[in-house]
Amino acid sequence: MASREAKGETVLVTGASGFIGSTLVRGLLDRGYTVRAGVLNPDDEAETDHLLALAAGAGGGHLSIFRCDLLDGAALTDAARGCSGVFHLASPCTVDPVKDHLNQLMVPAVEGTRNVLRAAKEAGGVRRVVVTSSISAIVPSPGWPAGEVRDERCWTDIDYCEKNGVWYPASKTLAEKAAWKFAEENGLDVVVVNPGTVLGPMIPPTINASMAMIRQPPRRLPKDTQPGLVRAEVGSKKLIALGLQVSPVEKIIRDAVESLKSRGFIS
């Protein structure tokens, strides 16, 4: 959706306040889209102030803030009504070890994804849904042949996750599988992206897990941020075909470091 000019189109972005979400919102606004930014708590300035600042400097786009509870299907349908596209980014990332991982991670991730897709279907007019999954839906996959590129055929091993208490990869895997199943059964155009390490200029006031790696004491960053994976010659060719412009990794890291410096996270 973001690869061309908007021509007045409206899109919904769930999880809009996060690192990827706010960067996406900026790109959409700059292209003239009307963006409905879904956040968990619209009254929380930490979730909304940086988005409103983006709207103030936007190049022709318009922004409105929506409460986005992934388990409130009716509210999601209302938010999606009138939209030509939906970007589903919202998903819980952490779990309190004292509390129930099922209700904290699994239900919001899996049922939330179904609810967003159902809302897109019921709203009418949505041409495509872009779901942000994760590399965590691909690894850990201990049974995958060594030396072979992990592609769409490779899924995280749920049994391995359950035995080792690794709940985030399990939640992302089951959520992505639910997305593909819903798309197939309901004729919905769905695209899934699986980000790994997420670095670059920061927009939100809080630091994400990937950027936190740069704050660690070692002065040399690891050459391979995803150890054990085999590099594909053109790993992003499908995304490039959709209009994604790929930045050199050196620029990404440099921009990330400068952003952390400007925010006072590193000296």
Walk me through this protein's architecture:
α1 (19-30) packs parallel to α2 (45-56), α3 packs parallel to α4 and α4 runs parallel beside α6 (167-186). This protein has helices spanning 19-30, 45-56, 73-80, 101-123, 158-164, 167-186, 209-214, 237-241, 249-263, and strands at residues 10-14, 34-39, 62-67, 85-88, 128-132, 190-193. The longest helix has 23 residues, at 101-123. A six-stranded parallel β-sheet has the order 3-2-1-4-5-6, sandwiched between helices. It folds into two domains: 10-199, NAD(P)-binding Rossmann-like Domain (Rossmann fold, 3-Layer(aba) Sandwich); 200-267, no CATH class. β4 (85-88), α4 and β5 form a beta-alpha-beta unit. The protein has 267 residues and is an alpha/beta fold. It is built from nine helices and six strands.
Radius of gyration: 18 Å
The helix fraction, in percent, is 40-55%
From the N-terminal CA to the C-terminal CA, the straight-line distance is 38 Å
- The first-level CATH class of the largest domain is given as Alpha Beta
| Main sheet strand line-up | 3-2-1-4-5-6
Low-confidence stretches at least 5 residues in length (pLDDT < 50)? none
Largest sheet: 6 strands, parallel
Quickly list its features:
alpha/beta, 2 domains, 267 residues, 6-stranded parallel sheet, 9 helices
Question: What layout of secondary structure does this protein have?
Answer:
Layout: E1 10-14, H1 19-30, E2 34-39, H2 45-56, E3 62-67, H3 73-80, E4 85-88, H4 101-123, E5 128-132, H5 158-164, H6 167-186, E6 190-193, H7 209-214, H8 237-241, H9 249-263
Protein name: NAD-dependent epimerase/dehydratase domain-containing protein
GO molecular function: oxidoreductase activity, acting on the CH-OH group of donors, NAD or NADP as acceptor
Pfam family, one: Epimerase
